[in-house]
Amino acid sequence: MSANLKYLSLGILVFQTTSLVLTMRYSRTLKEEGPRYLSSTAVVVAELLKIMACILLVYKDSKCSLRALNRVLHDEILNKPMETLKLAIPSGIYTLQNNLLYVALSNLDAATYQVTYQLKILTTALFSVSMLSKKLGVYQWLSLVILMTGVAFVQWPSDSQLDSKELSAGSQFVGLMAVLTACFSSGFAGVYFEKILKETKQSVWIRNIQLGFFGSIFGLMGVYIYDGELVSKNGFFQGYNRLTWIVVVLQALGGLVIAAVIKYADNILKGFATSLSIILSTLISYFWLQDFVPTRVSLCRQARVLWPDLGSRQPPTPWFKGFSCLSP
């Protein structure tokens, strides 16, 4: 049963990661009549859906008793205001990160985004060393250096691409800055969240409810500040269609899937799942979205990024647990 849950959770992770990137990219580039949906409102809806999912999981853990559910929520959230407030910091960062991912996928093809976003492994490692006093071995530092080199090669245009990228240099730069900022925010928030989880005995689902609560507040503030006029003019759910709701649901379930992988699987298998997701995203980006043209050079560049995940010759050490944060 445990083995079945392990591979089931990994399969769901591959599906969730790949489908989220591709559907988000497709939804942001699809040309339709009328206004496009607002990414700020999609982030808020995703947080609300995540709260609902976590409440259902807590309800299940409470033996499907509404009285027990109410007691758990009251004791763990309302009666512990300081513990709840600790989640405001990572929640605000996650909200910023989720909005940045929409910006990144509006300006980068899915394959380039997937590869560049793997830099969050490097930022998570750096924050783990500085905030949790974790130690990395020579092999781990070598893997991280190769990862960083591979991402740099992915972003470096070849001679045959210079002319075609000249007109879109501005949008490429915006997308790159967005995904790099998301990598740093993901690393810091993930390590901060891990530190909170280790210092308390509250369940992951309770912590996700707290994250979602603050995330909804920060998200609504972002909607009001940046898209208030558009919302008042065309409504909160302007531009929403079936594809938009798929993106929102996939984003909401992202943190829950990662939590299941951490519980039932291990990090080396998670690395294989992430690598497989990058390969699938590249193939589908080429055959379906047609916004990525693979060459021998680009494939070699991506191989440099995949190597730290697929080339490991030793099992993950305990410090590597910190690399599996609960961010989308």
TrEMBL record:
Species of provenance: Macaca fascicularis
Name of this chain's protein: Solute carrier family 35 member A3
GO biological process: UDP-N-acetylglucosamine transmembrane transport
Gene that encodes the chain: SLC35A3
Keyword Transmembrane belongs to the record: yes
SUPFAM superfamilies for the chain: Multidrug resistance efflux transporter EmrE
Family: Belongs to the nucleotide-sugar transporter family. SLC35A subfamily.
Localization in the cell: Golgi apparatus membrane
Any one GO molecular function term: UDP-galactose transmembrane transporter activity
